[in-house]
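new request in #modeling-help
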Amino acid sequence: MSGEIQAEDFSFWYGETQALKNISVTLPAGQITALIGPSGCGKSTFLRSINRLQDVVPRTRHEGAIRLDGADIHAPGMDVVSLRRRVGMVFQRWNPFPKSVYANVAYGPRVNGIRNAARLDEIVETSLKRAALWDEVKDRLRESATGLSGGQQQRLCIARALANDPEVLLLDEPASALDPLSTQKIEELLFELRGSLTVVIVTHNLQQAARASDHTAFFFLGELIETAPTQTLFTAPSDDRTEAYITGRFG
Amino acid sequence: MGGVAVGDRIYRGVTTLAGLAIVALLLYIAVEVFTGGWPVFRKFGLGFLTSSAWDPVHDVYGAAPAIFGTLVSSAIALVIATPLAVGTAVFLSELAPRWLGQPIAFLVDLLAAIPSVVYGLWGIFVLEPMMRDSIAPFLQNTLHLGGLPIFDGVSYGPGMLAAGIILAIMILPYISAVTREVLMAVPRSQREAAFALGATRWEMIRDAVIPGAKSGIVGGIVLGLGRALGETMAVTMVIGNAPTISASLFASGYTMASIIANEFAEAAGLHISALLAIGATLLAVTLVVNVLARWLVARVGVRYT
Ligand SMILES: Nc1ncnc2c1ncn2[C@@H]1O[C@H](COP(=O)(O)OP(=O)(O)O)[C@@H](O)[C@H]1O
Ligand SMILES: [Mg+2]
């Protein structure tokens, strides 16, 4: 099983402001890890460091390392394009391209060099099925993606990320703008993905973290306070700040 | 309380009046120009638009050379300016570091501030000799394009191509400025979506930025076209001012704007009417282009989520 992520003393700065402080953690391959913590504590910054999307943010720097299956993602030999193919990402606000459903899902494979039409058809179908969207869109693959409902668009974005057949899927509060039913569909499909790839999900919703993850990591003011199997973290947190957060005393 | 209502009514009255005044002014100008040109429209009918005889001495007037010249010189300008302007805008908004981008953007904007007559002078003293000694020989002898009708014949300097090149430089800042605006308006989430799927910077620009900015880019091109169609001074100085239709871009020509500017001073009688009729035609062409443009911009627009 590949797709293990390891951070080692990873720190990150926006200009002079340090957003992450010496993060060291292992996110086990094939499992779901939830990142929780109050807003502004660095969850998105950490998530976006894993696929080096933070590279495009000007005036930032990092120290320490993040490894994907043991390989330093910032090493000179690491090609950022192929890293992003291996590490897919889904954003808080769904962001399909204003193109057809098909073109959205086929985008990743196309920019990564797959041209064969039959092969693309197959990838699109598989990815939409994995994202639990196939039945709803199989008759409207050529229609604009922006005509779908919010929940469908977000699952389309998941399908689009899955089309690259990544080893890791990063999700930044993917359901925070969705209704409970759409949220449930996303949680279910993530559960289905368990075992086939590593899932890292940022969430504000503690019930969601408790329900839908194997491990939970609690971030606070740029630090990683504790990481534990989800059950343990929610029932017997070892740090007072974790306990204060999960019992709703701040955040 | 009454004071507010009165103030409100006065305000509304004044703004309505101002709005109506603009419409009235526009209509008034259009009517004046059309009635001024009416004797010529009546005498030559539709033939005025299709005939290429322009002979003030015998009072025979056909606007075809001027219409042709306006359309061709504007088309040349668009063909040259569009890729340059869009390329500049993409460079400035997506690729250039700030310290380089801002001064270049300022210089490009400055192109729009240069008076038309200065472009004309530059055209006469720099572009025309260059046309004759370098550009035409390069196209004909180095690229061996002399066989094409559009690059046939001898270039003496002034002509359709010179006018097109000047117009291209003049409209470039407009297309570039509008394009830059709309590129920057493409949501960051679209760029990140492309990057996160393994797009290179170039692929991200091609697939996520340009399509989202397409309607704005078209809008900028149309704005540029509007400028090119009506541009007078610089074109008059370099186009050669001959009422002929020639396939060769090296040949002299005329545009609707330049024929009016060039001949109004010594015109009398039906000649004046003919120039007004050309003015009316230019007004109509500009109107059609603008309507077409609005329709086009609306058609290629995209909607995110
Ligand atoms: N582009 C940015 N420029 C400067 N500071 C930023 C930027 N993005 C985030 N930050 C700061 O970094 C800290 C962590 O932000 P973030 O990772 O978005 O937190 P979270 O996702 O946990 O809410 C916050 O204090 C935030 O203000
Ligand atoms: Mg966040």
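bot summary: Chain B has one domain: 65-303.
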